[in-house]
Amino acid sequence: MTKLFGAAPDPKGEMQQAVEKFLGKKLQITWVPNAEYADKVNVTLASGNVPQLMVVDPHGPAFVKAAQAGAFWDLTDKLDKYPNLKPTDKLRVLNASINGKSYTIPRMRPMLRSAVMIRKDWLEKLDLKLPESVDDLYTIAKAFTEKDPDGNGKKDTYGLIIPKWPGKYASSSPYDTLETWFGAPNGWGERNGKLVPGFDTPEFLEANKFLKKMIDEGLVNPDFASYDTAKWDDPFFQGKGGIIIDVNVRSRALLDKFRDDGDKNYGDRVAMVGNLKRSDGQKFSLPFTGYNDAIAISKQNVRTEQDLDNILKVLDKLGTKEGQVLVQNGIEGRNFKAEGDTAALINETDPAVRVVQDNVDQAFTQLGFKGDTTYGGLAYARTPSGQPYKDMIKLGLDLMNEDLKTAVNNPALPVVSPTAVAKGAQLDDIIPDARIKYLSGEINEEQLKAEIKRWYDAGGTQVATEINDLVSKLGTN
Predict the structure, then answer these.
(1) Are strands 241-247 and 114-119 parallel, antiparallel or unpaired?
(2) Is residue 144 within 8 Å of residue 158, measured between CB atoms?
(3) CA distance 384 to 348
(4) CA torsion sign, 100 to 106 to 111 to 115?
(5) Do 367 and 12 form a contact (C-beta atoms < 8 A)?
(6) Are 134 and 276 in contact (CB under 8 A)?
(7) For 291-322, what is each residue's pLDDT tens digit?
(8) How far is CA 374 from CA 10, 241, 250, 448, in A?
């Protein structure tokens, strides 16, 4: 069972047939739309009918409960004999662990992806430079709002485009990114010798005061509190807004929109910079976990050590370069050709080939767990032909390598608080909801602080105690 970002592939279609032929196994895949995936995971775990392989959030409360209850295989010491599954990056594995135990195979992603995408043509029209600091970001957002960057003679544009983020606090949202730039911890950080949640710091409040000022001045899309992340690119493409704070691969998605619309100058529409400095010149960059979900193996349908070995052998074959290229790039010579470390799309006007490419992009890439060559993985970077894409890939890599020097890591990533698991439903929404209400003007700063206190009173105090205890024990293992 895994995620789906479009139409479900035909089980008898070219892509599934190619994967089955490569593995020598028939596949029965339950594709679940991304927006429904978290709910489907919870329902599936509760049903007792768990598939052999399942893509999960390794720290999702329902999965943690199930794994610790023995519903999934503990893989901590089992992967070393499989050459393509043997962990090569201990930090990624540790980040995805549950208090040091690995119940999953993390799906590799870059260690740092945060970036800022900006309408390049608007910058040039207003004779503005790329931002280096949060103050520059404000200046550009104000100019994009007030100085008619699209040249239509109307005041109908704004600077920053942000959505209502569906995830919990510290889920790499633009809100979290901005808070990190101001010096707030990334999730959890040390203050006075103890780990505290990032939202219980002065820097968290300063960042949100800054963002609220931008919102109050009309420099942000007015519907930010309810805006759907699925439509995040639209105002940028439609010429309504000019700045997006997100992962760097969004730059390529934005190029796609302009290119697919027939804009021959699509490369002149999107600029990108990395993490921004604070007003005092200090820089704090938001890193990623190094993985995006992970593959877990159910004990319900993989009952014995021999069954587990059979499954791991299949995954080991899928983990070869050939296997990862197949699921993340497609069929070489059919929908892409290799050009160095990138996959150049071919036959793009052929409807049958378009189906293959869509199957890869929207579905089968979810079976990939080794990433692409851009960030040290095995598959080719999934990139349409064209110099703007090649330039953007190189820029993204350069920015990532630079920002890793100032990355603010979360020391609590490898541990899971039992209280957070038990009371996640009550705790997880308190801070994101309060933040949105504060930014929208529904509550003031004192009421925001009261919501932070409510988080502690509702179980957060115990969570903090457990996080500190677990992290200290992790250091002694």
Answers:
(1) antiparallel
(2) yes
(3) 10
(4) negative
(5) no
(6) yes
(7) 999 999 999 999 999 999 999 999 999 999 99
(8) 30, 29, 15, 41
